[in-house]
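Q: For a teaching session next week I want to show students how multiple molecules come together into a single three-dimensional assembly. I've collected the sequence lines for a complex. Could you give me the predicted structure tokens for the whole thing so I can convert them for display?
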Amino acid sequence: MQILITGIFLGGVYAIIAVGLSLQYGVSRIMNLAVGEMLVAGAFAAFWFSTAQSLNPYLSLLVVIPVAFCANWLIYRYLLLPLVRRAKTRGQLEVDSILVTFGLSFTLVGIFLWAFGGQFFNYSFLSVPVEIFDARYGQNRVLAFAIAFVVCAALWIWLNHTRSGLSMRAISVDTRAASLVAIDVEKSSNFAFALGGAIAATGGMVLSTFLTFDASIGIVFTLKALVIVIMGGVGDIRGAIVAALVLGITETIVARLIDPGLTLAAAYVLFLLILLFRPQGLFGRAQT
Amino acid sequence: MKLTQTDVWRGLAILVVFFVLAWLPVVPGADGWLSIVVPITMYTVLATSWAIFSGPTHYVSLATAAFFGVGSYTLALGLESVPYPLLLLMAAVLGGVMAALVGWATLRLSGVYFVIFTLGLAELIRQVFTWYQNNMGGSRGSYVFTEFTDKHIYWQLLALALLVYLVGWLINRSRLGFAIRIIGGDESVAKHSGINVAWSKIVLFMVSGSVAAVVGAILAPRFVYIEPAMAFNPQLSFMVVIMALLGGTQRLWGPLMGAIPFALVWEFIAANFPAQTTLLMGVAFLLVVFYIPNGISGVLIRWYHQLRAKPGVSHE
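A: Of course. Below is the structure for the complete assembly, covering every listed component.
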């Protein structure tokens, strides 16, 4: 039971990052391999708020969300859109965007290392235990899960019950058909990419309240987010949330019962199973 | 297989170049800069074998570090009981088998799955290896004591480079090479003309994987002491990708054009600004994709064609 709840808490935070990436990949068609660095940027902002300014780290969201949104908007507009326009085929865009976002990821890690150095960072926030079903959990983790729930629910409502959300879903189904029904694909893709980045940075801020991080940890979360997005089915928010919870629970089980050093291996086994048996994702339909 | 006269002359010229390069360690005072020449040769071999697979197929492989690490460990663990040449062969076989397994799981799907899978592969093997050694094996690292110096490693790498060029050239001329170029152009066309798409990709990936594993085995004596974090360093995979892309993957000699300048710049930055190497890698990736998508060899080929075209234009 304790393992299950810890796993769900962890999965909730993974879900924030994964829905961010899912939005970027599903709508903007960019497999953003720098998503982990957005997360680290959010974590650094929270760290700075908490230690240098001695403010509540959650206040940093007031800065993190708009800044991450603008930064990702600019990244899409000036780095990725030229590639989208240049690409003749989907495959070409895939290769180019993978390489560019790798470049971006390394550049950002380089900047973090230069600005903050290579050591590990953590700070203490709400590390007070709270009792649920006769077991103790850190309050910071419970709060993180609550935030994850709010983010995912808000995104879900937006995508499924508003007009602009509908146009996002239309783009993720068929880009060309979407532009035929008067959806500005470039503008919407840009918005989706920026929003996805802002969500990922929020995830990083939340994560930093209970996790020790360093400048180059982003790649680990990029990998986990990618596994989740593929497991959930590309562009499928509901699938991503379920997959994130599955990954969180699996990792916790492996870490508690076998060895904490094998969490990535656990994620990989899940990934491999999905590739072999359901490459279209948990809820995806087979493509023709 | 028919050889034209140019093929023969070209082959002889390459042999002469390699023969001259083989005398490099004998030059007086060579020991100092052999420590730069060895990594350059290593990267050239790795990047060329990477491009044999990834150039025509456009599948970005980040598995080099995984193969390299497996090769290094094959040597380190078998050194006491198995003769050295046999170990190199074993590394090649292991690398090939691993590539076949990874390829079988991922190469039937789109490129994104492949990139993601290979991205974490080195880290995955490292975790499993560390876990295994912690729980079953005792110590984490292994010592590799041989009588090899940089000189011997350099000669082995040089021989391997020659082999890689030969294999790459043969593949280009073969049915497989033709098939893979069609697959790179349009996969559904390839399928409809009866090409076994998955199989062709897997075979090429196996070539690339076994070469990387052998390089790992050859380089192992240079480390003296091997531990998982070193042998499976993911940075190696990215270095190889950026060098191959910088050089250009359209020609067999392309990656060489990328490996030499990038390795020199890398050495310079690592020696003077060790904290900025990651930044350099990121910026290099961005510059290559935006400004020289066909690599240095692509630029050279364009210049060559322009030079040849000019006299023709002036006659009109």
